[in-house]
Specification:
The chain has 529 residues and is an alpha+beta fold. Among the domains are: 62 residues; 172 residues, Nucleotidyltransferase, domain 5 (2-Layer Sandwich), CATH 3.30.420; 74 residues, no CATH class. Helix content is 49%, strand content 16%. The strands form three sheets. The chain has a five-stranded mixed sheet, sandwiched between helices. Strands 1-2-3 form a three-stranded antiparallel sheet. The protein is elongated. The two termini are 39 Å apart.
Length: 529
């Protein structure tokens, strides 16, 4: 009790002493001769220790967390054995100790009402320290994340701990978006609701490959022991399905506008209509999953869209690049949900086939090839797919091309005819629909390629999923809101779930007033649903 009395008498004596020590140091001769950069670093380090002492003094003042009434665990059993217990907490300011009353019973782990009051994590690292690790892990490798946090806070943690923190940090991703759905209502956004999706490979450990891929990887043998032969791959990949949902205002364009934007070829626009306005995506959300199936991810995209447009008042558009699986899933889900969905084939993907076909007629890099591609694109955008295919094949015949030389032409023609139902571009442009998948291409690059394809990386399934989620939160601008939700979920998991009826005991907190008197306050965290 003597220690408690000492704290109440001068609760921040340690902090005051450190502050006075810092002031004395800055007035000393040594500091007077220092360069400003050395002085900055010294003040930063000493200042951080001062802040750590402030936190420690405050925690000492908050303790020991004596419950105002009886303490009962989740099974309803009374916890009557009381003893003081201490734990370390590693924070962004340094390591502090939390001394509090533990309520136990024979053969049972103690519960600590003050831990709930403070919403302390079960692990050693504070929520704020974990937030910084999670943000850095979303940017770069786990080693780089640990190093960046060390520079920010002075706290060292191994790569394995950084990865484990990232997993814990991302665990409430699905629950966060499930509870938030419906906030972007039809009244707050434009008329077009766009779903776009694609897939990107991630190198994972063999045991985390999907079954079919794992069997194929096991059967595949390399010809040489130390290097790869032509066409061989060192690692097998598991596909991450990437999705995005956003709303956008319709923008009317002509075929010439689109061709000029893609190739730079076309008539000079009139001064008064130099460029069509560019539509900006609204309420854009992007995400990816290497763990979920394509069906599950695309289903989530429809759920997100349904909550944004519960009354089906918007025009729904799906933008894809020609993957047959994606076409099938989009048809199945939209039919089941009764959604009138317009599926648009990415015009950039179409242009790639035309560029390849052009090599059958023109030299690589020639102006003639560029003009030919622009002409075919313009015709396709006017709704004349069959005309383009017929003209292309006749040109190949007139040139007397061999079967080998005709291959890119036939490949392009087959692709165009096979996807003609998704290429009604004259209708799409008239309706102001987007016709290119720039949003999902950017999402694939940022979410997957830029982070998951670090040289030599081979991911565990859970580690890859966690990083994809954290990067998605950053890309969607939701990280801060998510973290508040995550901390609330941690409170429920770590504290509310430990007590009878989910009621956390109220603790006594004794706080000195400026005049030296003591008052009692009742504090407890509230569950935010």
């Amino acid at each position: 009790m003597a220690a408690v009395a000492e704290v109440l008498e001068a609760p921040f004596a340690g902090s005051v002493g450190r502050f006075e020590g810092l002031v004395s140091y800055l007035q000393a001769e040594e500091a007077m001769r220092m360069r400003h950069s050395d002085l900055e670093r010294e003040i930063f380090e000493r200042g951080r220790e001062l802040l750590r002492q402030l936190l420690q003094d405050h925690l000492n003042l908050r303790g020991p967390g004596q419950a105002r009434g009886p303490v009962r665990d989740a099974d309803g059993s009374a916890r009557t054995r009381k003893r003081m217990q201490e734990r370390d907490l590693e924070t962004v300011l340094g390591v502090v100790q939390v001394e509090r009353v533990g309520y136990g019973a024979k053969g049972e782990e103690s519960v600590h009402p003050l831990d709930a009051e403070l919403n302390l994590p079960e692990q050693r690292y504070s929520h704020e320290l974990e937030r910084r690790v999670a943000e850095e892990a979303a940017r770069g490798s786990f080693e780089e994340a640990a190093e960046a946090v060390k520079k920010q806070t002075g706290q060292e943690l191994p790569k394995r701990q950084a990865e484990e923190i990232a997993r814990r940090a991302a665990q409430d991703f699905d629950a966060f978006y499930a509870q938030r759905q419906g906030q972007a209502t039809a009244a707050e956004s434009s008329q077009l609701l766009v779903i776009t999706t694609d897939a990107k490979g991630v190198v994972v450990r063999r045991e985390d490959l999907r079954e079919q891929t794992r069997k194929a990887a096991k059967q595949r043998a390399h010809k040489l022991s130390k290097r790869l032969s032509k066409g061989e791959k060192r690692n097998a990949k598991r596909m991450a399905q990437v999705a995005s949902v956003y709303t956008v205002a319709p923008v009317m364009r002509t075929a010439e506008d689109v061709v000029r934007g893609l190739t730079g070829v076309g008539p000079v626009p009139e001064p008064e209509r130099a460029k069509p306005p560019r539509a900006r995506p609204e309420h854009k959300r992007v995400w990816a999953s290497v763990e979920k199936s394509p069906e599950e991810v695309i289903e989530q995209a429809f759920e997100e869209g349904r909550h944004r447009d519960p009354g089906s008042e918007k025009k729904w558009v799906a933008l894809v690049d020609g993957n047959e699986t994606q076409f099938r899933i989009l048809h199945e889900v939209s039919t089941r949900l009764g959604i009138a969905l317009t599926i648009v084939l990415d015009i950039v993907h179409v242009a790639q086939y035309l560029w390849a076909a052009g090599l059958a007629f023109f030299v690589e890099g020639s102006r003639e090839r560029e003009l030919w591609v622009a002409e075919q694109l313009a015709e396709i955008l006017r709704g004349r797919v069959s005309v383009v295919v017929g003209a292309m094949r006749r040109r190949a015949t007139r040139r007397g091309l061999t079967a080998k030389q005709r291959e890119p032409v036939e490949k392009c023609a087959t692709y165009l005819l096979g996807h003609a139902q998704y290429m009604r571009y004259h209708e799409y442009l008239a309706g102001g629909f987007p016709v290119a998948t720039g949003v999902i291409e950017g999402a694939c690059r940022y979410l997957v390629k830029d982070r998951m394809e670090i040289t030599g990386a081979r991911w565990s399934l859970t580690g890859a999923e966690a990083v994809l989620r954290l990067r998605a939160l950053r890309a969607s601008g939701d990280f801060d809101e998510y973290w508040r939700f995550h901390e609330d979920q941690e409170y429920t998991r770590n504290h509310v779930a430990r007590y009878a009826d989910g009621k956390v005991p109220v603790v006594d907190t004794t706080v000195p007033t400026p005049k030296g008197r003591q008052i009692h306050r009742r504090h407890h965290l509230r569950v935010v649903k």
